[in-house]
Amino acid sequence: MRIRTLLASQYFIYFGVLGIYLPFFNLYCYHIGFSGTQIGAISAVRTLATALFPMIWGHLADRFSARKPIYIACSFASVMVWSLFLLTADFWPMMMIMVVYGILYAPIISFLEAFTMDFLGTQRRDYGRLRVWGSISFICVVVVVGRIVDAASLNIILVLILAGSLLRAALSVRIPAQLSPAREPTRQGLRLLAAAPVAGFLFAALLMLASHGAYYAFFSIHLESLGYGRTLIGVCWAVAVAAEVLVMILSPRLFGRVSLQSVLVFSCMAAALRWFTLAATASLPVILATQVLHAFSYGTFHMASILRIDELMPAASKTLGQAANNAVTYGLGMMVGFFGSGLLYEATGSSVLFAVSGIAAAAGGGVLVWFRPQPRAR
Length: 378
What we know:
mainly alpha
């Protein structure tokens, strides 16, 4: 199997599984009787583990040249832990399972991004055309699984996630060893994480991803409370990712004409508009229109973030850099977003929840402007 095809398959399955988890796992928890606070908490502990452990895994991978072994081991171990969800529907056992699962699942996406950056080399701005396979998979899965859930029950998502994760783990053993870097010291990388350009970018990214907590945790529940069915919920998610696919296909042209800084700031403003609009409407056409903004609130922001952290970190610390980006954004940022959303949903409902998300996204854009890169000396 060609390296490009292998990496594309990893993205395809990873985000296909995510296309089951994000729209339907919290809905599953809701239907087995969990409160909004409990749903926010169980989502938050997974992202807490994702926040704490990617940098540990990343440092170990760079220090001992062990990126591939860690990637494979965590892939298989996380599958085994996920299977325990089939044995219980009680809150505290599920919390404990999610903590362990989050620790083992933490390095998967950041390591995959690092493998991809190594493979692309000088063609890094073509990243979107490889990553797009994950988005295509997400679209297909959310529509198909929405129909399956309508016809069967929400319990089936646990089995589907288990099967997809096992397939991705089996393919992970074929990643070539040469995509893992040689052993080099990473102290320079650790110091750079605390420097103003990197720290400012990571803080802005944290705010941006925290603003997405309400969307990922409660968007499906919000739609169901408005009276929309699960098939339509799947369609809404699919529209968002279809817009993301389009912008990823066009990404080489976009990044060839627009600076990373401009893309990042514009993405934050698009997210703020999206969340403020969701807070103010129950109209299906308007909701579908806000889903198109996912192309910018997630698509362009994600691609520009991967490129920015790769640009800022030295060659010896690429895995650490991607792990730090993933830990701060999809880890700490999403943890804050999930847990805060759970508390706000219980107290105020979804409209105020999305309004607060809009404020967070706009604040992220402001931080990016404040820490904008300085022009290089000639």
